[in-house]
Write a structure and sequence with these properties.
The chain is about 55% helix and about 5% strand. It contains six helices and four strands; from the N terminus they run ααααααββββ. The strands form two sheets. A two-stranded antiparallel ribbon has the order 1-2. Strands 3-4 form a two-stranded antiparallel ribbon. Helix 3 packs antiparallel against helix 4 and helix 4 packs antiparallel against helix 5. The structure holds zinc ion (2 copies).
Length: about 160
Protein backbone atom coordinates (compact mmCIF):
# COMPACT_ATOMS: atom_id res chain seq x y z
CA UNK A 1 0.00 0.00 0.00
CA UNK A 2 1.12 3.56 -0.75
CA UNK A 3 1.01 6.46 1.68
CA UNK A 4 -1.79 8.15 -0.28
CA UNK A 5 -4.00 5.15 0.16
CA UNK A 6 -3.21 4.98 3.86
CA UNK A 7 -4.34 8.60 4.33
CA UNK A 8 -7.53 7.95 2.39
CA UNK A 9 -8.42 5.03 4.58
CA UNK A 10 -7.58 6.81 7.81
CA UNK A 11 -10.39 7.84 10.13
CA UNK A 12 -10.54 11.69 10.33
CA UNK A 13 -11.26 11.51 14.06
CA UNK A 14 -8.20 9.39 14.46
CA UNK A 15 -6.19 12.21 12.81
CA UNK A 16 -7.55 14.78 15.23
CA UNK A 17 -6.88 12.63 18.28
CA UNK A 18 -3.39 11.91 16.98
CA UNK A 19 -2.87 15.65 16.72
CA UNK A 20 -4.21 16.27 20.23
CA UNK A 21 -1.89 13.61 21.62
CA UNK A 22 1.14 14.89 19.76
CA UNK A 23 4.01 15.84 22.08
CA UNK A 24 4.27 19.34 20.53
CA UNK A 25 0.70 20.22 21.45
CA UNK A 26 1.07 18.71 24.90
CA UNK A 27 4.16 20.81 25.53
CA UNK A 28 2.53 24.01 24.26
CA UNK A 29 -0.50 23.26 26.42
CA UNK A 30 1.69 22.79 29.46
CA UNK A 31 3.56 26.00 28.67
CA UNK A 32 0.26 27.86 28.41
CA UNK A 33 -0.86 26.54 31.80
CA UNK A 34 2.52 27.54 33.23
CA UNK A 35 2.16 31.03 31.76
CA UNK A 36 -1.33 31.40 33.22
CA UNK A 37 0.01 30.38 36.65
CA UNK A 38 3.03 32.71 36.43
CA UNK A 39 0.84 35.69 35.44
CA UNK A 40 -1.58 34.83 38.24
CA UNK A 41 1.23 34.70 40.85
CA UNK A 42 2.69 37.97 39.52
CA UNK A 43 -0.73 39.57 39.83
CA UNK A 44 -0.99 38.31 43.42
CA UNK A 45 2.39 39.86 44.22
CA UNK A 46 1.55 43.10 42.40
CA UNK A 47 -1.82 43.37 44.18
CA UNK A 48 -0.16 42.78 47.57
CA UNK A 49 2.61 45.34 46.92
CA UNK A 50 0.31 47.98 45.46
CA UNK A 51 -2.16 47.63 48.36
CA UNK A 52 0.75 48.03 50.79
CA UNK A 53 1.97 51.19 49.06
CA UNK A 54 -1.49 52.70 48.96
CA UNK A 55 -2.32 51.93 52.60
CA UNK A 56 -5.05 49.38 51.73
CA UNK A 57 -5.02 46.04 53.64
CA UNK A 58 -2.27 44.15 51.71
CA UNK A 59 -2.88 40.70 53.24
CA UNK A 60 -6.59 40.82 52.51
CA UNK A 61 -6.10 41.95 48.90
CA UNK A 62 -3.30 39.43 48.37
CA UNK A 63 -5.65 36.70 49.59
CA UNK A 64 -8.45 37.94 47.32
CA UNK A 65 -6.01 37.81 44.38
CA UNK A 66 -5.06 34.21 45.31
CA UNK A 67 -8.62 32.96 45.79
CA UNK A 68 -10.01 34.69 42.69
CA UNK A 69 -7.24 34.49 40.08
CA UNK A 70 -7.24 37.55 37.76
CA UNK A 71 -10.71 38.63 38.87
CA UNK A 72 -9.51 39.51 42.39
CA UNK A 73 -6.77 41.76 41.04
CA UNK A 74 -9.24 43.36 38.63
CA UNK A 75 -11.63 44.13 41.49
CA UNK A 76 -8.72 45.55 43.48
CA UNK A 77 -7.77 47.90 40.61
CA UNK A 78 -11.37 49.19 40.59
CA UNK A 79 -11.73 49.79 44.35
CA UNK A 80 -8.14 50.59 45.35
CA UNK A 81 -7.40 53.94 47.04
CA UNK A 82 -6.66 56.60 44.42
CA UNK A 83 -3.10 57.46 45.38
CA UNK A 84 -0.02 56.24 47.20
CA UNK A 85 0.13 56.82 50.95
CA UNK A 86 3.39 58.76 50.79
CA UNK A 87 1.96 61.02 48.08
CA UNK A 88 -1.13 61.91 50.07
CA UNK A 89 0.97 62.47 53.19
CA UNK A 90 3.22 64.78 51.19
CA UNK A 91 0.22 66.73 49.94
CA UNK A 92 -1.11 67.03 53.49
CA UNK A 93 2.21 68.45 54.66
CA UNK A 94 2.25 70.86 51.75
CA UNK A 95 -1.27 72.02 52.56
CA UNK A 96 -0.40 72.48 56.23
CA UNK A 97 2.64 74.48 55.24
CA UNK A 98 0.64 76.71 52.89
CA UNK A 99 -2.01 77.19 55.57
CA UNK A 100 0.62 78.21 58.10
CA UNK A 101 2.20 80.53 55.58
CA UNK A 102 -1.17 82.14 54.89
CA UNK A 103 -1.98 82.47 58.57
CA UNK A 104 1.32 84.22 59.24
CA UNK A 105 0.56 86.80 56.57
CA UNK A 106 -3.21 87.18 56.80
CA UNK A 107 -5.75 87.68 59.58
CA UNK A 108 -9.42 88.63 59.83
CA UNK A 109 -10.67 92.16 60.28
CA UNK A 110 -12.22 92.25 63.79
CA UNK A 111 -15.03 94.43 62.47
CA UNK A 112 -16.16 92.91 59.15
CA UNK A 113 -14.35 89.49 59.20
CA UNK A 114 -12.83 90.06 55.77
CA UNK A 115 -9.28 88.85 55.20
CA UNK A 116 -6.68 91.53 55.75
CA UNK A 117 -2.92 91.30 55.47
CA UNK A 118 -1.05 91.55 58.76
CA UNK A 119 0.68 94.82 57.85
CA UNK A 120 -2.50 96.61 56.77
CA UNK A 121 -3.11 99.75 58.80
CA UNK A 122 -6.78 100.08 57.82
CA UNK A 123 -9.28 97.43 56.66
CA UNK A 124 -9.83 98.15 52.96
CA UNK A 125 -13.43 96.91 53.18
CA UNK A 126 -14.85 98.69 56.25
CA UNK A 127 -12.15 101.29 57.04
CA UNK A 128 -11.62 99.80 60.52
CA UNK A 129 -8.32 100.91 62.00
CA UNK A 130 -6.26 97.72 62.31
CA UNK A 131 -2.77 98.95 63.13
CA UNK A 132 -1.01 102.22 63.75
CA UNK A 133 2.23 103.20 62.08
CA UNK A 134 5.26 103.67 64.32
CA UNK A 135 5.94 107.39 64.79
CA UNK A 136 9.61 106.78 64.01
CA UNK A 137 9.91 103.97 61.39
CA UNK A 138 6.33 103.81 60.08
CA UNK A 139 6.10 100.05 60.43
CA UNK A 140 2.65 98.68 61.35
CA UNK A 141 2.11 98.21 65.08
CA UNK A 142 -0.75 96.74 67.08
CA UNK A 143 -3.00 99.41 68.56
CA UNK A 144 -2.11 98.38 72.13
CA UNK A 145 1.67 98.42 71.71
CA UNK A 146 3.42 101.25 73.60
CA UNK A 147 6.81 100.69 72.06
CA UNK A 148 7.74 99.84 68.48
CA UNK A 149 9.27 96.34 68.45
CA UNK A 150 11.23 97.15 65.31
CA UNK A 151 13.03 100.36 66.25
CA UNK A 152 12.39 100.55 70.03
CA UNK A 153 10.71 103.96 69.98
CA UNK A 154 8.26 104.77 72.78
CA UNK A 155 5.15 105.92 70.94
CA UNK A 156 4.12 108.52 73.52
CA UNK A 157 7.40 110.19 74.39
CA UNK A 158 9.05 109.50 71.00
CA UNK A 159 12.20 108.44 72.87
CA UNK A 160 14.24 105.51 71.74
CA UNK A 161 14.56 102.90 74.45
CA UNK A 162 17.51 101.12 72.87
ZN1 LIG B 1 -13.09 95.32 57.99
ZN1 LIG C 1 9.43 101.85 64.85
Amino acid sequence: MTTALLLQDADPFQLISDFLESPLLRISGQLLVLLVIVVWLSLVYWTYADAKRRGAIPLLWGLVAVVFPYLGSLIYVIVRPPEFLSESRERELELAYLEGELRSRVSLCPNCRNMVENDFLVCPVCNWELKKPCINCDRPMSMEWETCPYCGTDQRSGKKLI
